[in-house]
Design a protein that fits this description.
8-stranded mixed beta sheet, 6-stranded parallel beta sheet, about 45% helix, about 15% strand
């Protein structure tokens, strides 16, 4: 490359007033003799502008005869440009000819120039293409005390090329300078053969600065703003001059500005108000220009630490230092950059003091004390100790500079920071597990960008979203172009809403870019509305004009520069930062072009764009809390949506943030909603996957595990089904064998599965019958059988079927178990006779199942009973169970006896076996049969109640499963009466429907008469009518109606067949009012009850005239009817009850007639006594009604306690209901007057001794409550024992409350308790 034609260097003149000018000879000598020189001097000593001239005078730089440029670095762009202008002015040379500058996207340096001002980042970037910096013969690193990453990296790189056994650039001169610098550290860093680098201290300045300490104590009445106001008042009493106030951040600047305006308004009433100007990095260009214009000595500039170095605000005479600053510090715990307010170092405090005293004697007021100052760190922590090192590591690896651990940093970074840097690169896919660069890492290193942004661009290239992501990436690389002036915040927010998006601030950048490009007249800008869904396009098209507002009219042609700037200002958009944005975008386009990447031709979708952004922001993913507004981020951190987020709606549950910054709390900036299903495709190398609950799935026929994936602790998905066989074939094979083959959880047609299942079921049935669990071998042996024969690669249904089809050709009995292999021993005694498969109940064979599962509802013996046969099931037969279980039940029963009889039966198992062997099975009631046998053996008066049935296990009682015609279960339980009470009516209907299906084919009646009935059992001479015909259930055949006994002999029962099953029905006469009909019932008790009423009607039809006479001549009917009305009845109802009872007593005594002759005889015999019996019934009814009226009046007059009144009222309702004559048996009806008198006497005695009554009632109540509960359980079904117990309770009431009335038999609470125990059993 030919050398440039150098511009000659003008005559060099040094301002003698500057302290550095007096030391220039010493500095020049040190530069000649040493490769590195450290120059320390106070702010304002002139070193920044004079050192380049000293180097020129030494023949350095092209124009002075040197072999390269004099590179002069500054930490900020504005400083580089302003210093270049000042040096050019002092040399009387046009800017760029001899002295020029190059900053980000601005180059004011001509070819042949000698001095190049630039930012340290520019010089660092040049090391990629010029590692030895051969373009320079001198490098001046100014403001080195800032110790940014770029400066530390430059100093380390310079040390590498200057030192060592063979220096790579022995001709290169390096000058390191700053006002506040740790000189010894820098000198030792560049120590060479001649020892440490020389340090030249340049002392003195134009004007002295006085330090004043004004500490204040923060309180509610006096805060930082008050202290600043006091300092301003104090300074301006010293004389006029602008004041520079250092504050930590923008919020503090706004608060201080408001306070000062109010304070100065009171101090300067009537006069011009001083200017109060903010100065911070995000300030608009217009506001910055106001700061750098010369003041009138009455300005107050409120600045952040941006004004500490490089920037020289004109006219500053005084400084007020709050002593704090916002410092960006990397959190090793949260993995985020934090902006915390921290006390500044001594060096930073000195830099702030050096900002004054440049126009006159200066004063610096420090709002802290001298002791606090002395206790602070001497220097600010270098950025490398408080930053992420990912970019540095990436660049070093790309340049081949070795590992970051071995790089000669001025201060080596901590190992934790290095580890975090590698972690970020690994997150971006830039390094592998060995921390070596991946292909993505090599590509990232070529991009002069933050690694995160570079990763986004690479992903965008692959996802056809490069055009959009270049816009977003360039936007993230500069300050937000949207201004928000303090005095017009609401107006700015309103204008900025035009660019807000519902879900993504990244899309907002695209909208803003589109708006900017339309102003330039570009026909095809990036169109953000096309990267949303079609529905959103239509919505935005319909609302765009309404949302844009009057100032958002889209230009149809290119605007002039002046019009464009005016348009930007109207929308509070910074023209300067827009230019920077465009410059960066242009540079990124250049990078893309250099790599030969093509921009996408069609607009990218929302998903494409955000997948690309996600690739660089995986560490900034957040998932919203269910209950609060914070988001859970990586490694357990919590962050909040930044309050200034440019979103028209709240973001969704999942989002990414371009930046996480901690101020008052951790905020996410530049937010965008994402879908969680996008994460695995982008972050697959980072996901921590955990397989939970591997299990066999019958439908899929494979072992499935539930996968849980987390990204830095955030659960991305849960319970994702994965084939466990692909992950762990060995464990999947074991689960497959145990669940699918051993437990039979697999639906397949392979013959060995059904064969083995059938054998296992047979052996299990033997276990259930014998109630032993040691017949079938355990699952481990069956597992071992399959484990031995199956190949190692079989772990699913599909893999087994493939192997089985091939292997079956060689082994026809493949995988088939034998019964011997499944049984531990022979199950002796388990025969069909002992454990039948069916039991005959209710005349039909009912299927039986056996289960040995204590605690299960079906444990023991379960009989399936069809609903139509339920009412005919004999409870006595069910007590015997089956022969195989009888011995266990007998043994349990005799064990429940008292010790004395039990001792005479030992050994009890032998006695139980003997009883089962000698006693005919199922003959009579088991308890009665056993009771008789025990009495004979023991010669003791053992009672039925001595057998404690409640101690028996549930499996020793038969379990009934009642099913309908369709096989559906209707009920199940071990208490047959309860089942009959619940389902009896339904069973009766089913039986009668079955009988109706016979269609007139009536079977011959059973030849055996019933011992419980007086009706004969001879064959019927004429066919019976169909059961149910009288209710319209006869299948269309009309039911016969009878008014006399003209239907021949009425059988006791009839046989009904259903397939091979045979049922017995019970015919009965049914009362139809004016005639009777014949129906068939399934229960003899119900048939007898209906037959009794029907027979009564048939008798009444033969006695029409006598009954008419009787109806008119019932004695005292009118008087009784008055009392009966209190029961809610009428005279006719009372008359009918009296006649019905009289007819029953006169004609229907047992045995009932079964044919016409017997019926005629019975009618003839009863005619003569009908009237006498009717008078007797009427007289008894009158007595009962009279006593009931007396008891009711007594209850009303006595006004007993509520408990007593409720008990008496309930008793009266039970004794004398509306149908008391019909419902009360005649023997009990004789005692009703006594029971009612007992009620009256009880009420009389209660007045004298309520406590005694309460005590007696407490004794009675438990027995009565048990009775009422059992009565409710029966649901209307009859129970003779309960009926007997009911009248015993009434006798007990007489004994307790009216003993003088006496009882026909001894009664007591104990006697009734024993009677109840008998009923319970």
């Amino acid at each position: 490359m030919p050398l440039p034609t150098a511009h000659p260097v003008p005559p060099i003149v040094y301002p003698e007033s500057l302290p550095v000018s007096a030391r220039r000879a010493e500095i020049a000598q040190a530069i000649r003799e040493h490769p590195v020189v450290i120059v320390c001097g106070e702010t304002g000593s002139g070193k920044t502008t004079q050192l380049p001239k000293i180097a020129l005078e030494l023949g350095r730089g092209w124009g002075a005869g040197g072999r390269g440029l004099i590179g002069h670095t500054q930490p900020r762009r504005i400083a580089a440009s302003s210093v270049a202008k000042r040096i050019a002015e002092e040399l009387n040379s046009p800017l760029g000819e001899v002295v020029g500058y190059k900053v980000r996207f601005q180059d004011r340096l001509q070819r042949g120039a000698s001095v190049k001002l630039m930012t340290d980042g520019i010089l660092l970037a040049e090391t990629q293409t010029d590692p030895l910096l051969k373009a320079y013969d001198t490098i001046i690193v100014d403001e080195a005390h800032e110790r940014s990453l770029n400066i530390d990296f430059l100093l380390g790189h310079l040390k590498q090329i200057l030192q060592g056994p063979k220096p790579k650039r022995p001709d290169l001169k390096v000058i390191v300078t700053s006002a506040t610098i740790d000189a010894d550290r820098f000198a030792k860093h560049f120590e060479g053969k001649l020892g440490p680098a020389p340090v030249i201290q340049v002392s003195g300045r134009l004007f002295p600065v006085e330090q004043r300490w004004r500490p204040f104590e923060e309180s509610r009445e006096h805060d930082l703003n008050d202290a600043i106001a006091d300092a301003v008042d104090e300074l301006w009493r010293e004389g006029s001059g602008d004041i520079l106030v250092f504050l930590p951040g923008e919020r503090e600047i706004r608060e201080a500005a408001d306070h000062l305006r109010k304070h100065l308004l009171q101090q300067h009433r009537g006069g011009p108000q001083p200017d109060i100007l903010p100065l911070f990095a995000r300030l608009s260009q217009e506001e910055q220009d106001r700061v750098f214009q010369a003041g009138n000595g009455r300005r107050i500039v409120l600045a952040t630490n941006v004004a500490e170095t490089s920037l020289t605000v004109p006219g500053i005479r005084y400084v007020v230092d709050a002593g704090t600053a916002r410092v960006k510090r990397y959190s090793y715990r949260n993995k985020v950059e934090q902006l915390q307010v921290e006390p500044i170092s001594q060096a930073a405090a000195n830099q702030r003091a050096g900002r004054c005293g440049r126009v006159a004697d200066g004063i610096c007021i420090r709002l802290y004390d001298e002791k606090d100052y002395a206790g602070r760190a001497r220097f600010t922590d270098p950025e490398i100790l408080r930053s992420s090192l990912a970019g540095v590591i990436l660049r070093m690896k790309a340049l081949g500079l070795g590992t970051v651990e071995q790089f000669p940093f001025l201060e080596p970074p901590p190992n934790k920071a290095i580890a975090d840097g590698y972690a970020l690169l690994n997150e971006l896919g830039a390094t592998d597990d060995d921390n070596e660069l991946t292909p993505i890492g090599h590509e990232l290193a070529k991009l002069p960008l933050d690694p995160r942004v570079g990763r986004m661009i690479l992903a965008a290239r692959d996802r056809q979203a490069l055009a959009e992501v270049l816009v977003i990436a360039s936007a993230l690389s500069v300050q937000d172009v949207r201004d928000r002036p303090l005095e017009a915040q609401q107006a700015a927010d309103a204008k900025h809403k035009l660019f807000d998006d519902e879900k993504s601030e990244f899309m907002g950048y695209l909208k803003l870019w589109k708006w900017l490009e339309e102003g330039r007249g570009h026909a095809n800008p990036v169109r953000p509305e096309l990267v949303e869904g079609p529905a959103q396009n239509r919505e935005r098209a319909s609302t765009s004009s309404a949302r844009a507002g009057p100032g958002a009219t889209t230009p149809t042609h290119k605007l002039s520069n002046r019009q464009q700037e005016q348009r930007l200002r109207e929308h509070f958009v910074s023209p300067r930062r827009v230019r920077e944005w465009r410059d960066i975008h242009s540079q990124l386009h250049t990078v893309v072009a250099e790599h030969g990447w093509r921009l996408n031709g069609s607009p990218a979708t929302y998903e494409q764009i955000h997948l690309a952004m996600l690739a660089g922001l995986l560490g900034n993913v957040g998932c919203k809390s269910d209950d609060e507004d914070w988001y859970l981020g990586a490694r357990g951190i919590k962050f909040w949506r930044h309050p200034g987020a440019h979103l028209s709606k709240k973001p969704g549950r999942w989002l990414i943030a371009a930046e996480l910054v901690e101020t008052t709390r951790l905020f996410g900036r530049s937010l965008a909603a994402i879908e969680p299903q996008w994460i695995p495709g982008v972050a697959g190398h980072l996901l921590k996957k955990q397989l939970l609950e591997p299990h066999w799935e019958k439908k899929a026929a494979e072992v499935v595990a539930l996968e849980r994936a987390t990204l830095y602790g955030i659960v991305v998905y849960n319970n994702k089904r994965v084939n466990f066989g692909n992950v762990d074939p060995v464990a999947a094979r074991e689960i497959f064998i145990r669940e699918a083959l051993v437990n039979g959880e697999w639906d397949t047609k392979l013959p060995f599965v059904s064969h083995n299942a059938k054998l296992i079921a047979q052996v299990e049935e033997l276990e259930h019958k014998s109630r032993r669990q040691d017949v079938l071998v355990d699952d481990e042996l069956i597992f071992a059988f399959y484990d031995q024969q199956l190949p190692k690669d079989v772990h699913s249904g599909a893999s087994l079927e493939r192997w089985y089809r091939d292997e079956l050709k060689r082994q026809p009995k493949l995988l088939m178990l034998s019964k011997d292999e499944l049984m531990r021993h022979e199950a002796a005694g388990i025969t069909t006779a002992a454990f039948p498969k069916t039991i005959r109940l209710g005349g039909i064979g009912c299927s039986v199942s056996y289960l040995h599962e204590p605690g299960d509802a079906k444990d023991g013996l379960t009989v399936t009973v069809p609903i139509y046969a339920l009412n005919q099931v004999n409870e006595e037969r069910c007590e015997w169970l089956v022969p195989g279980l009888l011995k266990d039940k007998v043994l349990a029963l005799v064990k429940s006896l008292h010790q004395r009889p039990r001792s005479r039966l030992v050994p009890l198992p032998d006695y139980a076996a003997e009883f089962c062997e000698l006693t005919p099975f199922a003959q009579g009631a088991l308890i009665d049969t056993l009771l008789k046998a025990v009495r004979e053996r023991t010669q003791l008066a053992v009672q039925r109640g001595d057998f404690k049935l409640e101690t028996l296990q549930p499996h020793l009682f038969m379990n009934f499963r009642v099913v309908g015609d369709d096989g559906r279960q209707l009920g199940m339980g071990r208490h047959l009466p309860t089942l009959k009470a619940e389902l009896g009516a339904q069973a009766r209907s089913a039986f009668q429907a079955l009988a109706a299906l016979k269609l007139g084919k009536v079977e011959e009646p059973s030849p055996q008469p019933s011992p419980a009935s007086g009706r004969g059992g001879r064959p019927v001479p004429l066919p019976l009518p169909l059961a149910g015909e009288g209710r319209g259930e006869g299948g269309g055949v009309a039911s016969a109606k009878y008014t006399a006994w003209t239907f021949g002999e009425l059988p006791e029962l009839m046989e009904i067949r259903r397939g091979a099953q045979s049922l017995v029905g019970f015919p009965a006469l049914i009362d139809k009012g004016v005639h009777v009909e014949i129906e068939v019932f399934d229960e003899p008790t119900v048939a007898a009850s209906r037959h009794h009423a029907g027979l009564r009607r048939l008798v009444a039809l033969q006695l029409k005239e006598p009954l008419k006479y009787l109806e008119k001549n019932i004695p005292d009917l009118t008087r009784m009817a008055v009392a009966y009305m209190a029961l809610g009845g009428t005279t006719e109802e009372l008359r009918q009850q009296i006649i019905d009872v009289a007819v029953d007593r006169a004609f229907l005594a047992e045995p009932l007639p079964t044919d016409a002759p017997a019926f005629t005889k019975r009618v003839d015999e009863g005619r003569a006594r009908l009237n006498l019996i009717a008078q007797d019934v009427a007289r008894q009814a009158g007595v009962v009604l009279a006593e009931q009226a007396v008891a009711v009046r007594k209850l009303k007059d006595a006004r007993p306690a509520k408990e007593v009144a409720d008990d008496v009222a309930a008793q009266l309702a039970r004794l004398v209901p509306k149908r008391f004559l019909i419902d009360t048996p005649w023997p009990a009806l004789q005692h009703l007057p006594r029971y009612l008198k007992a009620v009256t006497l009880r009420l009389d005695k209660w007045r004298a001794d309520p406590a005694r009554d309460a005590a007696r009632l407490a004794e009675l109540r438990p027995l009565e409550q048990r009775f009422l509960r059992r009565l409710a359980d029966l649901k209307g079904a009859g129970d003779a024992r309960l009926d007997e117990f009911r009248w015993l309770l009434e006798e007990l009431r007489v004994s307790l409350f009216a003993q003088e009335l006496r009882t026909p038999q001894p009664v007591s609470v104990k006697r009734l308790q024993k009677a109840w125990e008998q009923i319970e059993r």
